[in-house]
Each structure stands twice: as structure tokens, then as C-alpha cells.
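User: Could you go from structure to sequence for me? I need the amino acid at each position, not a summary. C-alpha cells:
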């Protein structure tokens, strides 16, 4: 397989100047990911600052309530900053320090990536610009204030529909002007090579831990691993350890939003078509004329019209199955997990919880379903309460 590609997906479609910088970044990453000093420093920060390993939690109450398979949660919500995003933020900021860069440029949708990158930049003494769509800024006010408190500059993006895809565009434009002193810390397994490979590498800690933990608890591998998919970082992180384990079924859960109509969802693998988008080739939501379509989800972190190229490849190879969950189903799962287990999930993670519940009901009690709880729902409380008031 050609470097930077997953089958026909991936690659790097950028200007010649940026391409040279990305080659230097790739060379540094390939060298450092084998360097014991770098890896030990990464491990120490993840353990002492971030709080790894995160637990694998058996949902006793939920399993009893719904019947069927045992449901476990990989508690990425217990990471410092409240989500899996800090995994690659620590890695990429450490890479930036080794390269002598002084600034991080990033984008965020739900704000979890923004808070994570602002946190790590504060730790490392790096300047930090976070680009965020105006719609998401309004939905995620708490995370916006956290980023500012941590010393980051939050740059509002009003272009397009003011959501994640527009924030990515703006961040990459800024990176093209500042690449000599800055690194673009992309928030998912998307973008031009080497970003999908880098983010997967730093997120792979999730899958490695789960593989060890579930064997200790159940003396076997899980039967199903379930994770939400927007760009696909948390899902690729947990899937990575099981790609060669054919007995483990991998389920990616996209956002069906309001339904199957174009513009009402973010179900890219379900409805997308092949295109070059934001410097990489993958499945992308498009209209009949080939224009990038608006994506929608109640979860800001899933509100993105593209998907990581390796996810598209896994779909083609039938190694992973991709399903879609509606806003209503995700909200129901949010309330169910909160009331049943005392765990408040992010709306993004609620999509995976919703499908995990649906799946477990169809399986026998000797089966094990692991759901990646990619983030906690503190950031979504105001939005959910306001949404309730509107409905009332």
C-alpha cells in the first residue's frame, strides 16, 4: 500500500510548499515514534498529567436493565479535560517541542479538542490559536471559556455554516501562513498525510488498554467494539488494537441527525461519495453537483461532512461495520446512561451508547460489548437544558 494511502483513500493534496513541510513533519514523526526518550516522555505525561490508563467499566445496572450482552464502557471521559482528544494533543505538542515549534494551530467543534490542546499548550508553554465555528461557539460556551482561561486565543469562524468543517478550513489556511513556526494539531484522523497516521498512533493507546483490560475481566476478547464516528479519532484509536482480531466485530456509529435527507445528518459513510476534501481523499457528503453538502448533528463533534480515510477503507474491506443513530436515539441514550449508571456522556459518545444498547439487547448474556465513552457530557448540559425548555 502506498504510503499515506488506505486503498484509494488518503494521500496529500496541498500546495508544494506545504507538502515539503508535511514531509519534514512525517520524517520527524517516523523517527520519534521509535525513539525511547520521546516515548518514555509521552508515557510519563499520559500517566501523571493526563490520568492514563483509563478504566474499563462494567455497566452492571444498564446490563441488568436491558438484558442481553454485558456492556462495558472504556472511560475516556475520565481523562484530564474530559475526553479522548488529549491523547493526540499530548503527542502532537510533544512533537512540536522536539521540532522547535513555538505555536499550535487547531480547530474544534464540540470544544473538547480545543480544551485539550489549550491545556497541553499551557503545560508546554506554547502559543495556541483555536479556530471554532460561530454556531459551535454558541452551543459550547463552557468550553470556549475554558480555552480562554487556559491562555488560548479562540478565533470565531463565521464562513459557511459556522461549524466544524469551516473551522478546519480556517485553521488550515492559518497553518499555510505560519508553518515555519507552528504545527497544525488536527483534531481527528483526517487531513493530508501524515495527520491520519499520526493521530491514529497517539490514539491507539485506547485500544491497547482495552485489549489488556477486557482479558483481565472476561478472560477473552470482546465480541463487539462500538465507537462513534465523526472524523473518527476515538473509533480508530479503539479499533486499532483489534484490526487483526477477526473474532472482534468493529462497529462505527455515525450521526443520522434528523434523518436521511442531505443536510439533515453527518452519516458520511452511509451517504458520502469519493472526493478530495481539505487535503485528503475520502468519502464526503456532496450534492448532485459535487458541492460539499452541509452536515448536521446535535453533537458538534460529529457535525462534519468527511470521514477519516482509514474508516472509508475499513468499510470497503468490510472489516468494520458502520451504522447511524438519530438525534433522538442519542438523547435517549444520554438520559438512560445518566440515570442508570450515574455517568453523564458527551452527546458524541451517546451515539455509541445508543447503538451499544440496541446491539446488546439482541445478544446472549455470554457476549461482551465494549463501548468507547469518548467524552463526558458536562459541555452539553446547558444546550440540553435549553433544548428541553424550548420543547416544553
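Assistant: Here is the amino acid at each position, in order:
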Amino acid at each position: 500500500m502506498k504510503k499515506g494511502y488506505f486503498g484509494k483513500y488518503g494521500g496529500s493534496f496541498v500546495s508544494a510548499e506545504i507538502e515539503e513541510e508535511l514531509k519534514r513533519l512525517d520524517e520527524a514523526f517516523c523517527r520519534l515514534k521509535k525513539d525511547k526518550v520521546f516515548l518514555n516522555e509521552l508515557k510519563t505525561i499520559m500517566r501523571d498529567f493526563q490520568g492514563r490508563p483509563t478504566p474499563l467499566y462494567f455497566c452492571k445496572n444498564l446490563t441488568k436493565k436491558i438484558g442481553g450482552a454485558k456492556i462495558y464502557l472504556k472511560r475516556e471521559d475520565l481523562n484530564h479535560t474530559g475526553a479522548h482528544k488529549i491523547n493526540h494533543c499530548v503527542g502532537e505538542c510533544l512533537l512540536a517541542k522536539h521540532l522547535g515549534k513555538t505555536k499550535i494551530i487547531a480547530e474544534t467543534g464540540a470544544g473538547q479538542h480545543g480544551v485539550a490542546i489549550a491545556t497541553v499548550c499551557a503545560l508546554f508553554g506554547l502559543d495556541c490559536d483555536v479556530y471554532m465555528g460561530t454556531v459551535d461557539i454558541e452551543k459550547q460556551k463552557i468550553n470556549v471559556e475554558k480555552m480562554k482561561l487556559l491562555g488560548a486565543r479562540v478565533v470565531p469562524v463565521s464562513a459557511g455554516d459556522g461549524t466544524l468543517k469551516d473551522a478546519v478550513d480556517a485553521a488550515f489556511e492559518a497553518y499555510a501562513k505560519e508553518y515555519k513556526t507552528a504545527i497544525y494539531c488536527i483534531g481527528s484522523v483526517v487531513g493530508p498525510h501524515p495527520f491520519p497516521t499520526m493521530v491514529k498512533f497517539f490514539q491507539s493507546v485506547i485500544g491497547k488498554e482495552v485489549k489488556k483490560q477486557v482479558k483481565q475481566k472476561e478472560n477473552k476478547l470482546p465480541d463487539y467494539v462500538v465507537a462513534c464516528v465523526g472524523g473518527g479519532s476515538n473509533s480508530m484509536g479503539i479499533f486499532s488494537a483489534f484490526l487483526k482480531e477477526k473474532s472482534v466485530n468493529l462497529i462505527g456509529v455515525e450521526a443520522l441527525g434528523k434523518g436521511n435527507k442531505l443536510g439533515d445528518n453527518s452519516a458520511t459513510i452511509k451517504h458520502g461519495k469519493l472526493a478530495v476534501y481539505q487535503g485528503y481523499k475520502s468519502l464526503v457528503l456532496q450534492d448532485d453537483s459535487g458541492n460539499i453538502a452541509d452536515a448536521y448533528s446535535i453533537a458538534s463533534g460529529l457535525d462534519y461532512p468527511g470521514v477519516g480515510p482509514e474508516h472509508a477503507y475499513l468499510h470497503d474491506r468490510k472489516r468494520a461495520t458502520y451504522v447511524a443513530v438519530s438525534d433522538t436515539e442519542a438523547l435517549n441514550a444520554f438520559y438512560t446512561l445518566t440515570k442508570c449508571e450515574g455517568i453523564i456522556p458527551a452527546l458524541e459518545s451517546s451515539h455509541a451508547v445508543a447503538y451499544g444498547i440496541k446491539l446488546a439487547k439482541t445478544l446472549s448474556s455470554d457476549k461482551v460489548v465494549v463501548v468507547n465513552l469518548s467524552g463526558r457530557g458536562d459541555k452539553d448540559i446547558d444546550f440540553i437544558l435549553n433544548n428541553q425548555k424550548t420543547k416544553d
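One structural detail worth keeping in mind: The chain has 16 helices and 14 strands.
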